[in-house]
Amino acid sequence: MAYKYLTEDIIQKIDEYRNKFPYKEQAIIPSLHEILEKYRDIPEKSLEELAEYLKVPLNHIEGIVSFYDMFRFKKNARHHIRICRNLPCHLANYQSLLEKIKELTNADVGKSSADGRWYIELVECIGSCAIAPAFLIDNDLYDGSNLTDEELKKILEKYK
User: Fold this and answer.
1) Among residues 92, 93, 109, which one has the least CA distance to residue 101?
2) Residues of the chain with pLDDT under 70
3) Strands 134-137 and 140-143, how do they pair?
């Protein structure tokens, strides 16, 4: 069957995941990451295609997409900044990092910048407590501890 959203390159990756894991359900999350990377969002019809291809119930995939905040149905901006606000990052003053990022990107939490370049989101955990306050730009992890304003500007400039 021909798919609109599951392109040949995505199907190839899905097949790699299916062969890597003992249960087909384990391929869902990495497959969703492939879709997200290609389209910058999760087209709703792609969920139906993925469910059909993996032969899993559609509501199982929908439950995963609605549970994890990294998956989204609409394009927010070209670059997605996620800042951890969990306890270690809170104690490491993520708020200061957030304010600097807001100032440098002209974006606010939950909103895209006017130029459509940046979207900022606060998340509960990105699993990098050792470098608190940790943040992600797209899929790139950054150490927010002892980060100068100049270093932060250089990081953001890489995403022009």
Assistant:
1) 109
2) 1, 69, 73-76
3) antiparallel
pLDDT digits (tens, 9 = 90+) for 116-145: 899 998 988 888 999 999 999 988 999 999
Q: Give bridge partners of residue 122 from the DSSP assignment.
A: 83
Reduced 3-state DSSP string for 139-155:
CEEEECCCCCHHHHHHH
Q: Are residues 42 and 65 in contact, defined by beta-carbon separation less than 8 angstroms?
A: yes
Q: Tell me the three state secondary structure of residue 119.
A: strand
Task: List strands edge to edge, sheet with 118-123.
Answer: 118-123, 79-84, 134-137, 140-143
| CATH architecture, domain defined by 79-157 | 3-Layer(aba) Sandwich (3.40)
Domain boundaries of the chain, sorted by first residue: 8-67, 79-157
Instruction: Kindly give, in sequence order, each residue whose CB lies less than 8 Å from that of residue 56, ignoring residues fewer than 6 positions away.
Output: 24, 25, 28
Model pTM score: 0.64
